[in-house]
Each structure stands twice: as C-alpha cells, then as structure tokens.
Amino acid sequence: MGVHQAVNIAIFGLSLRTLNELKEHVQTAVPSHIQVNWSNIAEPQLDILMINHMFFDSPNIKSLIKNNNINVLQIANDVNKNSSIEDDTLYLPLNHVHSLHHWLNERLTKNQELTAIPLPTSTNNILHRKQIKDILLEIQNPRNGKIQLFDNNGLIAIADPRNEWVWQNPSLRSLQTDSSLNYTYATQNDQLWITDTPQQDLKLWLWNLLWTSSDFDELCPSSVSSFYLEIWPQPHHKAERQQILRMAACFAKGAQISVVATQLRLPEKRVKQFVAASLGAQYGRVIKDHQANYHPQNPQTETEQNFMKKLFGRLRNRLGF
C-alpha cells in the first residue's frame, strides 16, 4: 500500500449533475501525485469547500470556515459571467475550465503541507453511501435545531430533529428527492413560512420521502440479507399500501430479503427498496440470517391467506387507511 499526498474537497448544495461535472473538471486540474478525497462537509481536515452561494451565509457554514483553514469557492449562476471566477466565486454554466484550473492550482500551490495518507481500498460507492448515511443521521439527530433540507431542485422542507417534526415546502409538487439530498441550519428568516404550514412527523415523512425516491438503494447494500422492522411505515399512496404492509408484516418478525421477495412474489429490488427506506428512517435494523423468525411454508394454505387478509384489514383500521 503506497503513500500519496491528498487533498480533501467537499462540494455542498449543488445538483447531482453539476456536482459530477465539477468533480470531473477538478480531477483533471489536480496533479497526478495528489489524491483527491471527496469528503463530507464535516470532515475535520477539509482543505477546499465548493458551495452553492445561497448557503454561504448560513451560521454553520460561517462557523466552519472561521474555525478551520479552508479554501472556499462559491458557486453561482450567471450566463454573462459563465466559467469565470471573481472574488472566489465561480459562475456557471461552465463552458471552459481555465479559471477553475487556475484557482485550484493556486490553492494547491499555497497549501504545500497536504496530508500524507495510505491509498484507500474502499470504492466510490461505499464513500457515497457513507455520505448519504451521515446526512440522514444528521437529519434525525436530536442535538440539531431546525435545519433546511434541500436537493438539486431547491428547498424540500424544514425539519426539527429535536422534536421530530417537519414542515414540507408548500410549493413542492411531489415528495421526491435524489442523492443530492443535503441539509444546512435554518435561520429565523428561513423559518417564517412554517407558521402557516402543517407540521408532520419527521420519521414518518422521511420514510415516505426515501420510498418514493429512486436513488437510495445503496442504503441496502448487497451485504444486507436480513432485516428486522421495529416501526411500521404509514405509506401515503393508497395504491402501494397493501404491498408495503405485506412487506412490513414479514419484516416485523425479522426476515430474509430473498424469502420475502419469493413469498410475496415481488422483485428483490422492490423489497430492498423497502428495507433501504426503513434503514434510512431508522425504522429497523439489520440482523443475522439465523435471527430471522419469518419462515413461511410454500405455498400458502387457504387458512394462512384468510389470516393475512384479516391482519391487513385490522391494520388498515388501526392506521386509518
């Protein structure tokens, strides 16, 4: 295992497409002997932060920059200034990368004491999964005050992890997000609109957000084969309720993903989607295969089918479906 110099870079508040394009351009600008570590904004040894200019003035960002020796490049949109950098602000669209390359090389030259680290063996997917997990943990961390949740399309909601409430952006057309999901702390001005917006249970809302979104399968990696459900979800969409409740009934006993998929005649990807949403919203935990207590007999007998129908009927009445 060799030792290389490394630079820790975090990108915050950008769309997934813009983020990926920026990463590609940064990789071409950094000398080959320097390893780029794509880091979370909470990385204690962060060297460079590239951030959407809209979030630059938030208190936690200001505190981060003040207390650490970080080079900051703000990202803004201005067609007339495209690709240029003025006062440490890069203007999109990025039609050429000359200014970006110059800015990066200037900062790397100034920062000669780059961290010496072993070459990592983990893949980009593992790093990305860890980043998403960290973000979801912070969204549910009771030590946090009110925070803004956003993605590449803008503001999604304001959450209060301490009291487990969330206020969804009233202008949001559909409850969906992607892997650009992120957060920042909310100022008093940011919270003015929530007084006229219904509050919702944070974990229940978060489960539905993850379920209806397509970019979170990685929360249930191939290494996960069995899952135990501790909190039942309350799905928003009527068309999917029966399917979701059937999966919940199986995992409430602790079950293997492959067994549930076979028993309910569902694609394994669909069952993993359920597990991913449940893990992300902290509705359950991964267990060992031998701890799974759901062992159905195939095929189901008529008595078992009637029992399941009655069970779902009672659940619908109890949950108000």
Proportion of residues in helical segments: 25-40%
Put simply, the count of helices is 9
Give unreliable regions as ranges: 113-127
> What would the principal axes of the Cα set say about the shape?
elongated
CATH class of the largest domain: Alpha Beta
Assembly annotation: single chain
Characterization of this structure:
With 321 residues, the chain is an alpha/beta fold. It folds into three domains: 3-121, 3-Layer(aba) Sandwich (Rossmann fold), CATH 3.40.50; 126-211, no CATH class; 220-319, Arc Repressor Mutant, subunit A, CATH 1.10.10. It is built from nine helices and 15 strands. The protein has helices spanning 16-29, 59-67, 98-110, 124-139, 202-211, 238-251, 257-264, 268-280, 302-319, and strands at residues 3-12, 34-38, 48-52, 71-77, 85-86, 89-92, 115-118, 147-151, 154-160, 165-168, 182-185, 200-201, 226-229, 255-256, 284-286. Strands 1, 2, 3, 4, 5, 6 and 7 form a seven-stranded mixed sheet that branches. Strands 11-8-9-10-12 form a five-stranded antiparallel sheet. The chain has a three-stranded antiparallel sheet with strand order 14-13-15. Strand 9 and strand 10 (165-168) form a beta hairpin. Helix 7 packs across helix 8 (268-280). It starts with a strand and ends with a helix.
